[in-house]
Amino acid sequence: AFEGLAQRLQGTLQKITGKGKISEADVKEMMREVRFALIEADVNLKVVKTFVKTVSERAIGQDVMKSLTPGQQVVKIVKDELTNLMGGEQNPIQFSRKSPTVIMMVGLQGAGKTTSSGKLATVLRKRHNKNPLLVAADVYRPAAIQQLETLGKQLTVPVFSLGTDISPVEIVRQALEKAEKEHHDVVLIDTAGRLHIDEVLMQELKDIRELATPEEVFLVVDAMTGQDAVNVAQNFDDAVGITGVILTKLDGDTRGGAALSIRTVTEKPIKFVGMGEKMDALEPFHPERMASRILGMGDVMSLIEKAQSNVDEDKAKELEQKFRTQSFTLDDFLDQLQQVKKMGPLDELLKMMPGANKIKGLENAKVDEGQMGRVEAVIYSMTKAERNTPEIINAGRRKRIAKGSGTSIQEVNRLLKQFEDMKKMVKQMSGMQQKGKKKMKMP
Ligand code: GDP
Ligand code: MG
Q1: What is the spatial order of strands in the sheet that 270-274 belongs to?
Q2: Could you say which DSSP state residue 65 is in?
């Protein structure tokens, strides 16, 4: 699932991740592509609009544009908002205080109600230590009852059925009695579906709901149906009232629209996803992990969190101020270097980058930390005056510094040149900034 969307979003975000500075135009361009990607993935148009608006506003915000890693911040925002779109936190099954907890499965024919009932019984038993009773309340097709009975046998979960001649409401009433007698703490009702939403079905479901007062009413929808799944969810919620969604067939090549739209449109959480036909293929839905998966993020979140926890915000602001007033010295340069070093071994960080696993030979990559150490040594060998006013560092001083730091005159020269270049660049940029181009960001 999600291949197309994942590919497009990853391609788009890759362009912005590494950028040391981003402009409003960069964000706009990116969001145009994100918008296309979402529409192509069959995401509800209203959802797309809101998403693009929220992300844009956050991305163009001052704290992002002025941060040390704006590209990564933007990616983090996209991921956060994707997560929010899908409901934020994982939403667990609710159990009633009084046993048994009744769970009702509703949905269109072929969506996966019966299969998901079996899967859910497995989850209830294995993960929640429950003793469920399955109830066959689809009285319109004999095959449906048989299907549930077969699953029950396979799982050794008892199935309550009374054939096809008795009303579903009566079946449920008797099932509840049996559950009480036999100490089943969960009653799982597999109801009938229709090819399309119709009044008769809705009334029947309402009647069952009224009688059984379920703690959960799970709407089972087929992810492959995209936007239709969202409409179905809305209709079922209006007519019967649902508490959550089970999105099936996510193992297929769905474009993802349903998964990304249902929560926002219906305000009902996706609680589980079906990942195959087998009885163990039901997984709790984790919005954050799904967002990560769609964005192919690897461990980039840890990376960004690491950067955020290591970069001293006040220090960063102070540096920026110095850049602006042209009072940036070699001491500040050293400071910045040490901030980077605090984050840990550079080659380890490199491996956490998204897509790093795809770069051949990276496992052997070694960042030259020795060189960083030498830069430090050179600066340490300078006097305070030299660090503040590098212009006074003449040939004689260079020789002394090289000797003191155990490096060479060439290395001292290179560092001084780098520092000068950096100052020049900063000067150019602040010049542009004064001309009103606020979007430029300091390195
Ligand atoms: P119901 O009419 O809503 O009860 O639907 P069923 O439970 O009978 O399922 C209809 C078809 O979808 C069956 O062939 C199931 O095996 C299949 N199915 C259900 N859930 C999944 C899933 O998560 N992945 C895949 N690949 N197939 C599923
Ligand atoms: Mg069925």
Answers
A1: 159-160, 132-137, 186-191, 101-106, 216-222, 244-248, 270-274, 282-284
A2: H
In the structure encoding, which two tokens stand for residue 412, read together?
Answer: 């001292």
Whole-number Å distance between alpha carbons of 19 and 28: 15
Give pLDDT, residue 303: 54
Which among 147, 218, 277, 278 is the best mutation to test ligand 1's pocket, defined by most ligand atoms within 8 Å of the CB?
Answer: 277
Give the whole-angstrom CA distance, residue 80 versus residue 6: 16
Q: In degrees rounded to 5, what are phi and psi of residue 242?
A: -120, 160
Q: How far is the CA of 67 from the centre of ligand 2 (A)?
A: 53
> What is the rounded distance in angstroms from the CA atom of residue 49 to the CA atom of residue 41?
14
Q: What is the DSSP letter of 285?
A: -
**Cβ-Cβ contacts under 8 Å for 396 (sequence gap 6 or more):** none
Which are the contacts of 237, defined by CB distance < 8 A and separation ≥ 6? 219, 266, 268
* Angle in degrees, CA 73, 75, 80, rounded to 5: 90
Query: Which numbered atom of ligand 1 lies nearest the CA of 111?
Result: 3
Ion ligand 2: residue ranges with CB closer than 5 A: 113-114, 144
- Strands 270-274 and 282-284, sheet pairing: antiparallel
Bond prior to 100 in cis (omega within 30° of 0): yes
Output the DSSP codes for 203-270: HHHHHHHHHH--SEEEEEEEGGGTHHHHHHHHHHHHHT--SEEEEE-TTS---SHHHHHHHHHH---E
* Residue 273 alpha carbon, nearest atom of ligand 1: 23
Q: Residue range 91-115: average pLDDT? A: 96
- Output the DSSP codes for 167-211: -HHHHHHHHHHHHHHHT-SEEEEEE---SS--HHHHHHHHHHHHH
Query: In the numeric block, which tokens belong to residue 145?
Result: 């009852």
Site residues for ligand 1, CB cut-off 6 Å: 107, 109-115, 193, 220, 248-249, 251-252, 274-277, 281
CA nearest ligand 1 atom 28, residue: 277
Confirm whether pTM is higher than 0.80: no
Contact by Cβ (8 Å): 265, 231? no
Nearest to 109, CA basis, from 226, 196, 217: 196
Beta-carbon contacts of residue 400 (< 8 Å; ≥ 6 apart): 381
Expressed in angstroms, the distance from the first to the final Cα of the chain is 39
pLDDT in tens, 182-196: 999 999 999 999 888
Instruction: Summarize pLDDT for 275-333 with one digit per residue, the tens.
Output: 899 998 898 898 988 888 788 765 444 455 556 555 666 666 676 677 666 777 888 87
Residue 144 has pLDDT above 50, yes or no: yes
Please give the pLDDT value at position 39: 93
